[in-house]
Amino acid sequence: MLKRALIYGKFRTNGIYGSFENGTRWSRLMSMYPPHYAEPIFKKDSQNMEKYELAKLSHVPIKAALNSSSDTIFNAELKQKMLAYIVKCGNSRLARELLTKTFEQIKRAQIERKHLVKQDNGHAICIDAEKLLIQAIENSRPLLQLSSIKRGGVKYQVPVPLTSKKSYFYAMKWILDAAKEKDRKISLSSKLAWEILDAAHGQGRVIKKKNDLHRLCENNRAYAHYRWS
Amino acid sequence: MKMFRKHVGSISRISTQLQRGPPTVGSIAGLSTEAEAAPKQERVDEKITEFRTAITNPGGHSPLQIAKFYTIPAEEKKRIFGGGGLPKQYELQIKTFTEACLMVRSPALELLQYIKQADLSKPVVRYVLYGENGVGKSLTMAHVLHYGALHDFLLVHVPWAPNWMKRPKETANATGQEGFIDLPFDAAAWLVHFKTQNAQLLQKLQLKTSKDYVWSKRESTPTGSLLTELVEHGIARIKYASETIAAVISELKQLSTAGQCKVMVAIDGFNAFFHPETRIFSDNKQRVTPDRITLTQPFLNITNYDWTNGVCILSVDKIAMTEGYMESYMPRYLLGKDGFEHLDPFVPVHVDNYTDKEFTNYISYYVDRFWITKTAPDLEDQLKFMSNKNPYTLMQLVRGL
């Protein structure tokens, strides 16, 4: 268990959740904490901060860290989020097993690739499955989305920018959806591994889906002003 | 016959995978891409002293090599472990790492020392490997098996005995004995395994049978025919495979007692032979006990101490049992009264979790093979804490890193 001493925190600005890009803090409507509570910092290496920062925090109440947030090599923010999306019916053990197997297959595939090309530039191949997952998610994040807005009795598909939180959500959802669209005999882990590898290299169905959406938004750029007028 | 082909097919697949990667030294050299030839050589040496040893013959292993990896040459791996013997997950690792490496660990060295010092003219000594789940009993056995294969032991190796009790390929009523069950495909597969492991040695020794074996009216194996002929007959006539195994094993006992050959018996999951029941059903829909299976008898026969010029390495394993019989890993519990009395007296060899040095070396090996690419300052501590230094748990933890 984490000690209370580890939990002192600050306002997170670098995370993907917790704040909007315009600086206003985002919090749940039904949160048990009032909005002035600070996020906990449970990662050891982000606890080394300047004195004045610590002084700022010393009188700010801080949220308790979540049970699942611990500073291990097995946890990573995006990985945990992906895990949460894989879970079905609360069976998070199964989800973790699936993601572990996915990572295993990614590693095996990459190592095999590395051995194949070892003569010239084998070191260029990334084997870290977590990095590849993050790369895949970053690559498949959409910038815009179409939302239908009614103007003068006609519905227009208006391109709307996405918040970073939403774009991460779509990226992970698309990757997972693509992985779920498979033959019954293929396991989710292997398909997910291939989808992640594809997306990390900027190809595959998820990237295509993102590009299609961007193209549609581009085509409907004439309606963009309906967002505000 | 189809199963059989599958079996043989898998052997050939493994072999092709192995051929893809050259053995250790070459592959390490190949991995350091940026260096030129001369510094490369230096680096290889450095790595070998770090956590690898260049001694590929288990006979040369001494406590100096403890916690170091040695490479099983692809040819030998294919010959000895082609039909099983290495755990499935380990085979997968071998494929990914493009080399078959085993760590030299103290239980294996202990066993090797016993075997080297044993007086083979005395009745066989039974060594029983025991330990918690996933501590490396099978791999210890593999290490010793490799020694046996290189030192002119005829191998009588059962890769995983519970397979016969838990998931037999096919069952049939035995022709010879009333009320017994035959496992023809498994028996034939074992004969193939026996043949591939010992082909060279059998060729060299030219062992002959001591009596006539009459299989049916038209088929028989006369006295003085080669042991390989007997084995091949069993493979060709699957119906008689179980009886052939009994014949081969009793012949081996006689031959080794006569001093014509040395025999190494290695049976993984030996306690399966003493499990209260199997998953096989007889004609009257009742579960059969292991002693009613024809394959059990010869292997109990050869683990008896009434012959000489051999060694028996047996392992008792919790997962060889089924639910309800897995409380303890101790030989007395797993073997039960009958099994314990059958083996008594035996030499127990305890296999334990990694020591600190072994653990560190394993981590460096994983890093060397790119299996761990994360670099956290306390990575090793965390893994140590999470896995309790248990080899299997470590393997399971590291795969998702």
Automatic annotation (TrEMBL), chain A:
CDD domains attached to this UniProt entry: uS7_Mitochondria_Mammalian
Domain Small ribosomal subunit protein uS7 positions: 69-221
GO cellular component, one term: ribonucleoprotein complex
Statement: the UniProt record of this protein carries the keyword Ribonucleoprotein: yes
Keywords of this entry: Ribonucleoprotein, Ribosomal protein
Parts of the chain that traverse the membrane: none
Top-level taxon of origin: Eukaryota
Protein name: 28S ribosomal protein S7, mitochondrial
Organism the protein comes from: Drosophila lebanonensis
Gene: LOC115630604
Automatic annotation (TrEMBL), chain B:
Keyword field contains Amino-acid biosynthesis: no
A single GO BP: apoptotic process
UniProt keyword terms in alphabetical order: Mitochondrion, Ribonucleoprotein, Ribosomal protein, Transit peptide
Cell compartments where the protein resides: Mitochondrion
UniProt main location, coarse: mitochondrion
Top-level taxon of the source organism: Eukaryota
One Pfam family recorded for the sequence: DAP3
Gene Ontology cellular component list: mitochondrial small ribosomal subunit
One annotated GO molecular function: structural constituent of ribosome
PANTHER family for this protein: MITOCHONDRIAL 28S RIBOSOMAL PROTEIN S29, SMALL RIBOSOMAL SUBUNIT PROTEIN MS29
Family that this chain belongs to: Belongs to the mitochondrion-specific ribosomal protein mS29 family.
Protein name as it appears in the record: Small ribosomal subunit protein mS29
Native organism: Drosophila lebanonensis (Fruit fly)
